[in-house]
Write a structure and sequence with these properties.
This protein is α+β, with helices and mostly antiparallel strands. About 30% of the residues lie in helices and about 50% in strands. It is built from three helices and six strands; from the N terminus they run H-H-E-E-H-E-E-E-E. The protein is globular, with a radius of gyration of 14 Å.
Length: about 120
């Protein structure tokens, strides 16, 4: 297990948000588990390949920021809960929640699932 999993997961969470904002498919490709599943705010569920395609198209929201972050480490499994704020395409403010599930596999933390909601 890494020396400081809380610091590592904090960094991974920050990179996750940055990578959504910057459409960084390379980062996601390196950090998502092969069996990763994403649930979008509209309820659609994407496997890893479809999620990478979605990320590559870029986000319609800008300035994505996470706050009120809670990281729960449960042995080799971690759950990250957080709120988000961002600018919508029309320039108004938006907000939401996300939950990311991470598992320590093959000596490194990999994101296995994400659920995003708006509001």
């Amino acid at each position: 297990m890494p020396d400081d999993p809380m610091k590592l997961l904090t960094d991974l969470n920050a990179h996750y948000i940055r990578s959504v904002d910057q459409a960084d498919v390379t980062w996601f490709d390196a950090n998502l588990a092969d069996d990763f599943i994403n649930t979008n705010p509209d309820g659609t569920r994407l496997d890893r390949a479809k999620f990478l395609l979605q990320i590559g198209k870029g986000s319609s929201v800008k300035g994505l920021e996470a706050y009120d972050i809670l990281i729960r480490i449960l042995g080799t499994y971690a759950i990250i809960h957080a709120r988000t704020r961002y600018a919508k395409p029309d320039g108004t403010s938006g907000a939401g929640w996300y939950t990311d599930d991470w598992q320590l596999r093959d000596g490194r933390w990999q994101c296995v699932a994400e659920h995003v909601s708006r509001g």
